[in-house]
Amino acid sequence: MALITKLKIFTLVSFIIVTLFASSSHCQFVWNTTRWADCNLIDSWQHRSPTNSPCCRLICGQTRHVTCLRQRDQLVVPIHYCQHTSRPPSFQSCTSCSQSTNCIVSVWSDWSPCSTTCGPGLRSRRRQILTLPNHQQLDDCPSTFQQQPCYNILPCNQSKSLQTSVMWKSQIGQCEEYIFEDVEVKLRQGGLICIDSNGNYVSNRFCTSPTTSIRTIYEEVCYPQVDCLVSDWDDWDLACQGCANASMPTNFMQRRIRRILRYPVNGGQACPLLFQERPCVLPKCATSSYKRVITEWGECVLDSSVKNSSASCKMGTQRRSLVCINEHTNTIVDIKFCQSSLTDISSINLARGCSLNCSQDCLPSQWSTWSNCSTTCGIGITTRYRSVIIPAVNGGKDCGILNQTQTCNQNNCSYWRTDAWSKCLPDQLNSQCGRGTSLRSIYCVSYNGNPLADRNCNHLPRPSRARPCLIPCLDDCILSEWTTWSDCHNNCSNMSKRHRYLLGTGQNCNSVDNLQQTRTCNDCTKSQCTVGPWGLCLPKRNGTCGNNQGFRSRPVNCTLLGNIVTPSNTQDCNIPCPIDCQLSSTWTAWSTCSQSCGDGYSTRMKFVIQYAHHGGRPCPPNVTIDGVVLERRPCDLPQCQNATTYQWVTQPWSLCKLLQDNSSVICGNGIQLRQVNCISNSHLIVDHELCINNSLLNSPAIFRPCVIPCKNDCTLTSWSPWSKCSSNCNQYSDTKIRKRYFHNFNKSVGLDLCKHIKNEDLTQIANCISDQCFTYKWLISKWQSCVLTSANVTGNDKCGSGIQKRSILCERSDNNIVDDELCVKYMDSVPANWRTCTIDCGTDCQMTQWSDWSDCDHECGYGIKRRNRHIIRYASANAKQCGHLEESEICRRRPCHGITWFTDAWSQCVLNNGSVCGHGLRNRNVYCIDSSQKSIPKQLCLTLTPQPISVEQCQVTCANQCGYSMWSNWTPCSETCSRGSRRRTRYLLRDVSGLDCTDTVEAEACIVNSCHNYYWTVSSWTRCLPIKPLCGKGVQFRAINCQRSDGVVVSPSLCSRNTLPTRRDCHVTCDTDCILSEWSSWSSCSAKCGLHGKITRQRRILYNATGTGKPCPQQQNLQQSQPCSVKPCFTYTIIRNQWSRCITVGSECGHGKKFRAVSCIRNDGTEVDISKCISTLIKANQANVEFSLKDSTLDVSTTGDCYIPCKGDCMLTTWSNYSPCYYDCSNGKNIGYRVRTRQIINRAKIGGLPCPDNIVDVMQCLPSEARCANFHWRTGKWSVLSGEREVWCIDSTNGKNVSGCSKLTMPPTNIQCEPECSEAYSECRDGQCSCIVSS
């Protein structure tokens, strides 16, 4: 019991000590983690966290090892030592998993035939690695090579001689630099050693033969290693310039490229990347930092199409500029920064029509109404005015007098009012006839008729109150009173008249002859003036320019009959100040070069921000039609192939010169040299760089190895040229052949003595086909645009004669495009590739002259007059069009107010049958007159009132009859809108006793048709009359009249007050031809080759045609095209023949050389230089970011080192073929790889060639060839009997079976789940545990 107690105490103390130690030293223990493994499908049950669902088993993730370390010695300790801190996770999820982390292999090949034809042997089979884990590791891949014994039942011939027990083995050293006749070459030394059947070294004498001479030490040329050479980087593109507004993206990628000038050969250094890009972020533009400026219109410039016109009046064009200005820097920037919408800028006209040297008559307004009289009482002056609507220009007819005055008589003052004269009262009391007196009352009244004291009328002569008269006696002659004086009609040359009439016969009638009196009119006070046109505006003395800084004059001639103001003969005028042409102050940045080779140029611009006006300094002569001054500078570019071409030219090879500089050596390996030049198509020798920069790539070799054969050497000559192609015209049987020979032996002897050389090493055969086996035809494209020649251009480069081109190429009967020489050789003619052409200038519209103006369509008031013209010949589509065929203007024959009947005085009564008294007829002239007292057609008055009678009965009473005065005028009709009556009176002049002399009143019925309504009528608007000559802003008018309800135009006073406008502003379209911009530069060719390559250029419509101007071309005619790069679209394929067997230098094993033919075959079957294939390959991948060119990518070597295994060497399988080009599907960059492998069969013995380290070769392949490495499981149908199915792995890109899909994703092969599904919420479904889906 005591012992147990002591143990418990010891244990407790130990625990406390350990705990204290741990707590005091926990900082000495830390977590340690390895790097994360690649993302892969992982069984989550092995890395489950409490939040994982038990049904979520396969997840995409990556793992790492987590351990606890003691810091002082990095010793791994139990994990509870690190519990004081959180344990780092050993698992994390990935977004995607690639199957490329698995080693994917193909299925096994079939077994090879047995290695022997008799007795025991070996057979083998292989499979290919398709993808490696991480493209590097081979550790996790299964074996790719298998061998098994085999046996042939046929017995071997025991008498067959045994192989020689010794043999030569060749060895080579390292390549070292060596200067040979100023040429840097690399040489290496080789030699032969003799080995026995076990691979052991023995004396060389055991391998020598008396029939052949063997050189056991020799030197040979190493094939030169050529590194890749690239050009300098081009400049970064311009994506990062300026700033971005709200409607533009703010981030861009900036790019630059460089070119391969020389490709790597023989293991030379690979090419670096050829394409670079980097992000750039543009600052946002301030919202108010740009403003749009539209300049004033410039001078009117004569159109080029009318420069040769003899007419003095010509059409021209005015221009203005639209620029966008950065307000912060005060510089002009691209117009897009000021553009708020696509149509915002294009809707602004930057050109308009105008006229030059065109005269225009003045157009005045209508006369105003007469002003109020200048006095309120008595005779004064009244005035009316009119204004200038369109001024006279360039000698046009002047408007004349713009104001008129005339006298007026105002009764708005006190005046003498008189009553009617009384009946004639006899002077003698109780007298019935004879002399008498007629009386009347006289009053002084105000202008409104109120009586005033006589003194208020003292300013006027007092009318007489009495006048003598005559009361006819029974036998006296009776005369009427004198009529009032007739009106002078405001015509100073007329006479005024008055009359009296014979009313009754009596004594002394025959002596009465004074029945009419005349007097001269003296109330004419109108002014009569004639004025001439205004002269030129001349500057005042010491004046400059500006408003009212000039004066002009005109002739004025007036005849004044009153006190009025004469029109002025001088007036101030404006002298416009000259405005100089103004360009933007700074140049824009230089543009990118116009082309990539040849004579390209870059440009910078200034903009016209103000055109010259009023004689200011004009713009420079190099201003384009759209207001741009261009400055060009040449670019430093390589010459284009189609301009200056270059080619490599080689001189003949020199004689073979031995490598060993020893006079005693007369045979062996050597070098041949030759000169290589770069020659231009002008036959000049130029620098090699010009050939390299023009895609000719690598220079031809300047040296090559050669052999001066020693006696009995087993050396071979060079290959002979290829023979001619056999002409069977069968592409499968036609062949060509080339050969080489032994230097020292004939063929049979050489093959017998030189065991390492076989018959196939002496002959090469290749398929071919002859040009004669095909037919040929020309392929012809459509004719391209007619491009005008500069010598035949008219009218803004829109019509004239030019040149039209098309493309022609030669096609062979196998549908291949071939060189034109073959069509020229085998066909009779060559179609033309150009022809002359004409762009029709069109036929202008031809019209008659304008007719005379028609009469005004209203007799009074405002009307319309018209004139017209007719088309003689219609215009073609691209010529000046026909104008309008009718014009109208406002007219007025006379005003409608003041139209009335006017009657002359009645004639004396003409008695019937020549009697002296009794009844008769009298007549008078009746006129219809207007307000100016001019006679007008009577119809105008008839529409208003009935015509007064011009003939009426009259009576001259006889001496024994009652005598009466003349009838008074009829009173107005008693009704104004219905049937009424009217009356007239006369008084008795002679009373006859016994007679009824009371016929002094007469009445009659009357109808006055005045039941009318009155309203305003308006005409259509007249033609627009330009304020300036020919076109531009103008005015147009319409006739507005007061019309009676029966359609008669009457005086405006009968209608209510008029509020309708009689004129409005308008615009007369200028007859201006379409204005086009200059042609842009030709674009680069749309294709590098073929029949349909085109270069194009465009032009813009600066100003659409207006009026009858020549219209703009249709949209398709604003672009021109020309053929370019008219050459066959050849494709090139590298044909790599199989490597020859390994040929050693006089040995049966060891180091040797292998050979193959590598050729570049054009698609028409022609063999071309290998550089064509290489340059095509490079261009196809020029802009690929990941493209890197190295020697193994090209794989164009024709000579390679090889090795024939000797006894005791490491034994390997041959390299497998390269796998297809795959890339990792989960990686966005399509970098592709090919894989090949070899397997170690036997390890090397002592002294044998050791096994190499590289048994896996991973080669990057071109991105254009790469495809996604996508491998997945496929399943067959379930077997009803066994409950099983077949499951296999395939390559989804080609459907081939492979091996290596992830076992974690493998579908079950048995329909039963093994083991059973024991996890919560899981069930067995199709052989695997799946989550139960809730309903």
Give structural notes.
The chain has 1335 residues and is mainly β. 5% of the residues lie in helices and 35% in strands. Strands 11, 12, 13, 14, 15, 87, 88 and 91 form an eight-stranded mixed sheet that branches. A five-stranded antiparallel sheet has the order 9-7-100-99-98, with no helix packed on it. Strand 33 and strand 34 form a beta hairpin. It starts with a helix and ends with a strand.
List keywords for this structure.
single chain, 1335 residues, mainly beta, 8-stranded mixed β-sheet, 5-stranded antiparallel β-sheet, 8 helices, 5% helix, 35% strand, elongated
Q: If you average the pLDDT, what whole number results?
A: 78
- Which word captures the global form? elongated
Number of beta-strand segments: 102
Low-confidence stretches: 1-25, 48-56, 158-163
* Cα-to-Cα separation, first versus last residue: 66 Å
Taken as a percent bin, the fraction of beta residues is 35-45%
Rg estimate, integer Å: 62 Å
Summed up, the helix count is 8
Largest sheet: 8 strands, mixed
Q: What proportion of the residues is helical, as a percent range?
A: under 10%
Structural class: mainly beta
